[in-house]
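RECORD TYPE: inverse folding
INPUT: structure tokens
STRUCTURE:
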């Protein structure tokens, strides 16, 4: 088996260069190196909602997939990002069923959206990780988030919580995730 690096989600940032794309920061668990993967808005929304523990009123695609797997007694055991080709990261899901296992090809963004729902480990091929990883200072991401908050008349926490409630009721999950991040950031800064 190839050497692998266990990774986890370190951040999810809206891309400043391309509209409606997001940068998913994946980092090694024992260091400060990060790999950035560009993902679409639907997968970003799905990941952000789960990370922020926001439950939509109806299941999203990734929730539906896991519900179907559970109905058939199939467990997602791990996600493995195993290849990079033509600008695309390729992933596999290891599924375990009644004394049977299968490896299934998946888009990396979908695989990670499923992994955050199950808590299963995420691995990346070490050679790929070493090639694309960059050393990051821990404060870089925090400073970017704090800069977004600085404006002249920020809403109160109560106003933000009401906006979050409305966004969830209106199924505006991307906005709900943004508001939840802002509320969380303000709560920890107090």
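DESIGNED SEQUENCE:
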């Amino acid at each position: 088996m190839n050497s692998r690096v266990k990774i986890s989600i370190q951040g999810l940032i809206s891309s400043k260069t391309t509209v409606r794309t997001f940068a998913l920061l994946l980092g090694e668990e024992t260091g400060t190196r990060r790999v950035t993967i560009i993902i679409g808005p639907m997968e970003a929304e799905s990941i952000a909602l789960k990370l922020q523990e926001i439950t939509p009123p109806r299941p999203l695609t990734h929730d539906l997939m896991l519900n179907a797997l559970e109905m058939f007694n199939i467990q997602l055991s791990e996600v493995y990002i195993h290849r990079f080709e033509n600008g695309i990261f390729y992933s596999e899901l290891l599924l375990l069923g009644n004394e049977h296992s299968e490896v299934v090809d998946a888009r990396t963004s979908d695989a990670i959206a499923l992994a955050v729902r199950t808590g299963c480990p995420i691995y990346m091929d070490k050679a790929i990780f070493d090639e694309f990883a960059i050393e990051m200072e821990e404060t870089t991401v925090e400073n970017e988030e704090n800069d977004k908050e600085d404006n002249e008349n920020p809403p109160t926490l109560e106003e933000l919580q009401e906006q979050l409630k409305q966004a969830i009721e209106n199924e505006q999950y991307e906005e709900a995730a943004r508001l939840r991040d802002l509320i969380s950031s303000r709560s920890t800064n107090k």
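NOTES: The first strand starts at residue 4 and ends at 14.
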